[in-house]
Specification:
- With about 350 residues, the protein is α/β, with parallel strands linked by helices.
- It has two domains: about 160 residues, ATPase, nucleotide binding domain (Nucleotidyltransferase, domain 5); about 170 residues, Nucleotidyltransferase, domain 5 (2-Layer Sandwich).
- Helices cover about 45% and strands about 20% of the residues.
- It is built from eleven helices and ten strands.
- The protein has a five-stranded mixed sheet, sandwiched between helices. The protein has a five-stranded mixed sheet with strand order 8-7-6-9-10, sandwiched between helices.
- Strand 6 and strand 7 form a beta hairpin.
- The longest helix is centred in the C-terminal third of the chain and has 27 residues.
- The radius of gyration is 20 Å and the shape is globular.
- It starts with a strand and ends in a 21-residue tail after the last helix.
């Protein structure tokens, strides 16, 4: 079988990225431009500003990805692109670029679900990893437990009913005055705090593996506001450590429970929150205690990037024959099981 080069394009939120990946596993280039600094003053991503930056960044990113990989469009076999879920304006920029290149060079276009991309980041880190396995996808917009039955075949075993884990991090960070994005800020502060200082709630559902972080978020905010009203000092590191422990405890517990129910011994992390040091350490510990093998991408592959999209596109094309025409449109919300 000949070597296959896939160009991956990602623009679902505030990162613009293009990457060239060989045979779905080897990253030859991974160009990323972010508008994060622009959004910091607003405390979150502003969709219109993100879209404008994607327009500015998309062509240079694609050109850099091809140059860094020492290839041209003539060498590319497939173009993979994120078509959803995400911010519609942002998605349309990457999608338009991908469709234009597909049409101009007659390269097959492969539609990729954003979460599928995050899961596939593990293939880039671990050349021997293959389905079936279980993956916890945790980010600013998603918290899901996914059974990866085969390449391109997924079952969502549990999902958030309200705030995603990363979203809760951002809101608590704003409450504590730590800024945006909240994940890295809280993770850093928590290292100096006592995770047992406050007992914040953990939500468990009796008959499913869904998550809910809105109650935890409210409990932390109420604690902070009540403490301020009493004129008492707030230990930010202790609040961060206690909040983070509550999030990590429930994420890990549900993931291990799901793996046992499915009879799976390989578990992986994916998504922006997968870069969190406490989550990585707790999941690795729990996996070891349950004789499971644990996988997690390097932090650069946890955030949105074109390499994960290229990897997912390779398997979608080769194993599932999943292709799209030029009528492919962006979708703000779509289940992973609908692809």
């Amino acid at each position: 079988m000949k070597d296959i080069l896939t160009l991956g394009i990602e623009s679902s939120c505030d990162e613009t990225s293009a990457s060239v990946v060989l045979n779905g596993r080897k990253v030859l280039s991974n160009a990323i431009s972010t508008s994060l600094e622009l959004h910091k003053e607003y405390g979150g991503v502003v969709p219109e500003l993100a879209s404008r930056k994607h327009i500015e960044f998309i062509v240079p990113c694609i050109e850099k990805a091809l140059k860094d990989a020492n290839v041209t469009l003539k060498d590319i076999d497939y173009i993979g692109v994120t078509y959803g879920p995400g911010l519609i304006g942002a998605l349309l920029v990457g999608l338009s670029a991908a469709k234009a290149l597909s049409w101009a060079e007659n390269i097959p276009l492969v539609p990729i679900h954003h979460i599928e991309g995050h899961i596939s980041a593990n293939y880039l880190e671990y050349p021997d990893l293959k389905p079936p396995f279980l993956c916890l996808v945790a980010s600013g917009g998603h918290s899901s437990i996914v059974a990866v039955d085969d390449y391109g075949k997924y079952r969502v075993l549990g999902a958030t009913r309200d705030d995603a884990a990363g979203e809760a991090y951002d809101k608590i960070s704003r409450t504590l005055g730590l800024g945006y994005p909240g994940g890295p800020a809280i993770d850093k502060a928590a290292k100096e705090g006592n995770p047992e200082a406050m007992q914040f709630p953990r939500v468990h559902f009796k008959d499913c593996l869904d998550y809910s972080f809105s109650g935890l978020k409210t409990a932390v905010i109420n604690y902070v506001n009540t403490t301020k009203m009493k004129g008492e000092e707030i230990s930010v590191p202790d609040v961060c450590a206690s909040f983070q422990k509550a999030v990590v405890d429930i994420l890990v517990e549900n993931t291990i429970t799901a793996a046992k129910k499915e009879g799976l011994t390989h578990i992986a992390l994916a998504g922006g929150v997968a870069a969190n040091s406490a989550l990585r350490a707790a999941m690795e510990k729990a996996a070891g205690e349950n004789n499971m093998t644990f996988y997690r991408p390097t932090p650069i592959l946890c955030t949105d990037n074109g390499a994960m999209i290229a990897s997912a596109a390779y398997y979608a094309a080769v194993h599932n024959k999943r292709f799209a025409g030029l009528d492919l449109n962006a979708v703000a919300t779509i289940s992973l099981e609908e692809i």
